[in-house]
Amino acid sequence: MSPQSVLQAAECLAAVVPPTPVLMHEGLNQQLGYEIFFKCENLQRTGAFKFRGAYYALSQLSEKEKKAGVVAYSSGNHGRALACAARLLNISATIFMPEDAPAIKQHSARDEGAEVILYDRHRQSREALAAELVEARGLTLIPPFDHPNVIAGQGTAVLELFQQAGKLDAILVCVGGGGLLSGSILARNLMQPECEMFGVEPAAGNDVQQSVQKGEIVTIPVPDTIADGAQTRAASPLTFSIIQKNVKAILTITDDELIHQMRWFAEQMKLVVEPTGCLAAAALPQLTMKQGSRIGVLISGGNVDLASWMHWVGSVV
Q: Which of 37, 54, 111, 177 lies most in the core, judged by the most C-beta atoms within 10 Å?
């Protein structure tokens, strides 16, 4: 994939994707000795960066494909984003979501007009289920990360961050299947090749970290983590080919660290952030950059069931 693809996506999305704010916290800057720029994709349309990739991918379909409709599988945010994008473009959408996906993500996709089909992520293959529907109905599959246009669209979040924050020494991005990190790398290669890219994934689901260390894709069981957006079993050949050559390191975060980060965002920045959205920020203490370094942090999403969020945040002592 070419870094130019992110620019092409940005041109298409300009009319439908509002720029999300970049916020700073003076106390944290003083504590860590960095200038930290939080890119608030939790305030994006549909509550996550996923809308960027979903809309761009759908917008590039042929008229025949649009008329037939699309199918996707998603832990939640991609499905919700695809449902919204499909409604805006007058395309029918069917979404496979795991039974344990947050209710807010299931309900939101249905509210946008999508058909939501639940499945058991531990016993059923979402890829196989979607393939059956593609064959039966003639639908086009729009996966959550293994798609060039999805990756290009998602990369516009970091392209926008560079435009808003200026020069950055490093960027931290959460990792599930690697679509966001891949797109972010393409944007980095286009704008500031010297900026170091760090991926962050759950400690219980460090398949990408293992893959980078081993030099080949590692597949793991479904991770047991509250970061539902990062419960992927493996990166794809496309995302891994981009990540492997361009990432500085893949860092990992425990669920306890995610819970503390959720509470910090709530107390210090008045932001509701889902567990997966906290991954990048929670890894800030692991960085060993020089004092005064300018660090970008992508807050990837804010779609979390309120009851679960209150339970997690309230459990911090």
A: 54
Query: How far out from the chain centre does Cα 3 lie?
Result: 18
Question: Looking at 75, 182, 184, 211, which residue is catalytic?
Answer: 75
Say which of 5, 39, 50, 182 is annotated catalytic: 50
pTM listed for this prediction: 0.94
Segments of the chain assigned E as strands: 22-23, 35-40, 70-73, 93-98, 115-119, 140-141, 170-174, 196-202, 249-253, 294-299
pLDDT digit string, tens, across residues 76-111: 889 999 999 999 999 999 999 889 888 888 888 899
Half-sphere exposure of 107 (CA within 13 A, CB side): 6
3-state secondary structure of 250: strand
Q: State in Å, rounded, how far the first CA of the chain is from the last one.
A: 46
The token pair at 293 is: 């370094």
What residue ranges define each of the domains in the chain, with the CATH number in brackets?
Answer: 4-44+151-314 (3.40.50.1100), 51-141 (3.40.50.1100)
Cα distance between residue 293 and residue 51, in whole Å = 30
Catalytic site residue 67? no
Q: Parallel, antiparallel, or unpaired for β 249-253 and 140-141?
A: unpaired
Q: Residues 218-253: pLDDT tens digits? A: 999 999 999 999 999 999 999 999 999 999 999 999
Catalytic annotation on 184? no
